[in-house]
Write a structure and sequence with these properties.
alpha+beta; three-stranded antiparallel beta sheet; 6 helices; 51% helix; elongated
Length: 138
């Protein structure tokens, strides 16, 4: 009976170790960021835009490279972009996954350029339309 109890305990311990390994693998980026003392922003804000701007300024005074997250680029677009750009694109957002970049935003449909095909349906369009641009970084 004691041998069966020892085996059961060993199996439970093995399952717990496997579960911890899987959890560590799934959340590895967050764990590594916390381990390194870095806290990556999760939402666009003026503070994130200011921090991203500071990174870019360090680059301009002789830095080698800068890494910006999608949240940092989104914050720069929302809070540091020129006023003319903000009049054309509302709620810009940037998502990055691997080598794919996705830009989204809302644009006023009355600002779309004249096009014979578009002009036929322009009265049916809403005030704003969502635009999505996807690209691959090389």
């Amino acid at each position: 009976m004691a041998e069966k109890s020892n085996r059961t305990g060993a199996v439970v311990a093995l399952l717990a170790v496997v579960a911890l390994i899987v959890i560590g693998f799934v959340y590895r980026d967050r764990l590594l960021a916390r381990w390194a003392g870095s806290s990556e922003a999760t939402a666009a804000s003026p503070e994130v835009a200011a921090a991203a701007q500071a990174k870019l300024e360090r680059l301009s005074v002789g830095g080698d490279s800068v890494r910006l997250s999608g949240v940092e680029i989104t914050s720069l677009l929302r809070y540091r972009a020129p006023a003319a750009a903000l009049e054309m694109v509302h709620d810009p957002s940037v998502e990055m996954a691997g080598d794919t970049l996705r830009l989204t935003g809302m644009i006023p449909t009355d600002r779309l350029p004249a096009d014979p095909n578009l002009d036929k349906i322009r009265p049916l369009l809403p005030d704003t339309a969502k635009v999505v641009v996807r690209g691959t970084l090389e």
